Amino acid sequence: MRVSGAFLPWLAAITAALLAWGLYDGLLVAPPDYQQGETVRIMYVHVPSAYLSMMIFGTMAFASAVALIWRHPVADIAAKASAPIGAGMTAAALATGMLWGQPMWGTFWVWDARLTSMLLLFFIYLGYMALWAAIDDPERAGKAAAILALVGSVNLPIIHFSVEWWNTLHQGPSVLVSGGSTIEGPFLRPMFIMIGAYTVFYFTVLIWRMHQEIIARRIRSLRLLQAQG
Amino acid sequence: MATYFEMGGYAWFVWPAYAFSAAIMVGLVVTSLTALRRDRKILDALEAANPRRAMRREAAAAATANSEEATSDA
Questions:
Q1: Among the four A5, A36, A196, B18, which has the fewest Cβ within 10 Å?
Q2: Does A64 touch chain B (CB under 8 A)?
Q3: Has residue B17 been placed in a domain?
């Protein structure tokens, strides 16, 4: 805790600097797209939040596996502390996607594979958080929530490959494709800066939330001691 | 400047997308830090009031007092 505490001001500062750079590059330097016009700028907040929504759930699933197999309490705490950040990022990805879809596709929402599986991810996050909140004993809550995270992770490859397996209104992959990205450099750079900014943001808030959870558990055990007299 | 904020006629899509993203991030920071500060205060109060710790502190104080007596005797 002391080590991560020393890192924290630096992490927060790096987040702020990367966000400022990404916003400057995305809103002022990058040109409008020849087909999408200025709406292409929505990409610089849409793609990072969509990426994080899945990366965070992957992290939670991994941490949950570690918690179940080796019973490491910090893994449990990391998974629990990640969930609200992931849920927020999923909500942001859905909202910014809708605001991009209306001008470019002519509709805020369609029930196609990509959009529906992302909505499902949002509900899995909510269910995971509700499960933690519903069970008082952190050990039992952690076990149930870890199983839910592992089961829910089945949705991750479905989201990722949804644009290839089914006909969707959402575009296919355009960054990590063979033969290099189909997005031009001036659009790609602010997107990667923002992905970096969002990732450091996640770790900053994650450490805050993990500290809080560790303190909350100490409070719980002290109160139990007091109740026992 | 005004034409910049019009975003080529897409202002009502671009700016709300940024506003929503900012609101989510600010909300996460504020709720996380408030909870952290609140729980830190509760823990400090509990540790200050905890009789076990207080007893341990008294025992430690008694031990140092004894050793001081021992050194003064010598």
A1: A5
A2: no
A3: no
